[in-house]
Specification:
single chain; alpha+beta; 4-stranded antiparallel beta sheet; 13 strands; elongated
């Protein structure tokens, strides 16, 4: 296979892995830090009304995919009421009904929300509303105001903002003051502005929402004006005539229907409150993903039982240790016993600690090596000899644990975490190397094994890396890409450059 083919394959695999990581980070909002918190708000609507003796029906507009936020959880609290949710386009409402009710009735809608870039901006087809039905002198006043606004505007956006500004000045003109008669609430003023814009064939609508802040308090539901300029909807603040969608604006409803309707009950009212909290970013990201696309969670590691997840938190680190071993062996030139044995020892070091793990490993392997030399004198065959070494290794590990327990050395109890078969094979390999190539070579490879295991354990116990690999297992594809590239490397290792430096000086540049 040509190198070009290999490099293209590695580039493709690495790109796929990085793209998946960026998508989960930027779109699905999975955190990059192991300990991260995000803002979570609880928004609540409290409906209170004195019931009639007849059946009562309560209709409340509720949020539906608010731009910039995601609904993680919803609660409807209404004892003895039937509940019916209905969606109409980009709007949603809940209807409570009861046959008989006594005393003041209180109903609640509560939702937990979090920031989310997935939900798009509020859209919808532009529709020109009904112009206001005005009698004189109100009709003439409206015509005068609209003509003046037209002379001081250049397009739909500036026309709408200038109209809002004229209705917000401290000393409005006589025409504006006349139009504001009996329209003292922000809601009635917003509806009047939308109707005036409709009389000039400008699509306009009133949406309702409030800005989420840091305080836990009651909030006032505010109307916002939106006009369509032919391409997009422009949001205008009715208090200062500024345009643009505020960062913390939580859209409650864009419906043309009233926010609250209680049958023939003018004394019904609704109040809104907001509380802010901090929550674990990983849990919130998982919950947000469940709300948006349940299948993405169902076919991911997050759907596994907690015990299995903990297992994979360790297993996913094995390729990291193997990659470190690849670099140290193929590029640096450190010799070890076996290919993956240092990685398995590194897994044990994660729980025992590097220093304590090295001491325990050396004590058991050293003692086992002495026993192995004695067994050599008995002239045993290979399989019986390995079995005997394994039995002795287990006994040595048990002995270390018992002695450590009597001496109140807790770290000694961690010797049981070492892979017994690997330790037995290490003793066997070390003794064979000692006989064939001498004690220096055996100790050198044993030192290399310990060094690789220690470095791999240090990397594998890094909390940030452990979090990233479990949350973004696609990073292993990037690791695979680097492994494929390094797999064709056949040049000098770093230790070989030091080994042959004397020869290089003798030969010289010529």
């Amino acid at each position: 296979m040509k190198k070009t083919h290999l490099y293209l394959l590695a580039f493709l695999i690495g790109t796929i892995g990085l793209a998946a990581v960026v998508y989960k980070w930027k779109v699905l909002n999975f955190p990059l830090q192991p300990v991260a918190e995000v803002e979570v708000w609880t928004v609540q609507a409290r409906v209170e009304y004195p019931p009639r003796r007849l059946p009562n029906t309560v209709t409340l507009q509720i949020p539906y995919k608010p731009p910039g936020f995601a609904l993680l959880d919803e609660r409807f609290v209404a004892n003895n009421y039937s509940k019916l949710e209905e969606q109409r386009g980009n709007n949603r409402e809940v209807q409570w009904a009861i046959r008989r009710a006594r005393g003041t009735q209180v109903l609640y809608y509560r939702a937990t929300v979090v920031r989310n870039t997935e939900n798009p901006a509020l859209g919808g087809k532009p529709r020109i509303g009904d112009p206001p039905v005005l009698e004189e002198p109100y009709a003439s006043a409206a015509q005068t105001v609209l003509d003046q606004v037209r002379d001081r505007s250049a397009d739909i956006s500036t026309f709408a903002k200038e109209l809002v500004r004229r209705f917000n000045v401290d000393s409005p003109s006589e025409e504006v003051a006349l139009l504001l008669e009996d329209r003292g609430t922000p809601e009635l003023r917003a509806q009047l502005l939308a109707e005036l814009l409709a009389s000039r064939k400008i699509p306009a609508r009133v949406i309702h929402g409030f800005e989420l802040g840091d305080m836990n308090t009651e909030v006032d539901m505010q109307p916002w004006l939106q006009v369509h300029n032919g391409n997009d909807w422009i949001t205008i603040n009715l208090q200062n005539a500024s345009d643009g969608w505020p960062e913390n604006l939580f859209l409650w409803s864009s419906s043309r229907s009233p926010l609250l309707v209680v049958d023939e009950n003018p004394r019904a009212n609704v109040t809104w409150s907001v509380s802010r909290n901090l929550a674990d970013a990983m849990a919130i990201a998982e919950r947000r993903l469940e709300v948006q696309n349940e299948n993405l969670v169902r076919y991911s590691l997050l759907s596994l039982p907690l015990q299995t997840q903990q297992v994979y938190q360790v297993l996913l680190l094995v390729p990291i240790g193997a990659f470190i071993m690849l670099i140290l062996r193929n590029l640096i030139g450190i010799k070890t016993y076996g290919t993956f044995m240092p990685v398995l020892v590194a897994l044990a070091f994660r729980d025992t600690g590097v220093i304590a793990g090295i001491l325990l490993f050396v004590s058991v392997v050293g003692s086992g090596l002495l026993v192995r030399f004695y067994l050599e004198r008995l002239r045993l065959l290979l399989v019986p000899r390995l079995t005997a070494v394994l039995i002795v290794t287990v006994l040595l590990m048990a002995l270390v644990s018992v002695i450590s327990n009597r001496l109140d050395i807790e770290v000694g109890l961690s010797i049981a975490l070492f892979p017994m078969v690997i330790m037995a094979m290490t003793i066997e390999r070390m003794s064979v190397t000692w006989e064939e190539r001498g004690g220096g070579a055996a100790i050198k490879e044993a030192f290399g094994t310990m060094l690789v295991a220690a470095l791999a354990a240090l990397v594998m116990t890094w909390d940030l890396l452990e979090h990233l690999i479990f949350v973004f297992p696609e990073l292993l594809l990037v690791l695979l890409a680097f492994t494929l590239v390094l797999g064709r490397y056949s040049g000098y290792r770093l230790t070989e450059l030091f080994r042959f430096r004397a020869l290089a000086r003798e030969v010289g540049p010529g």
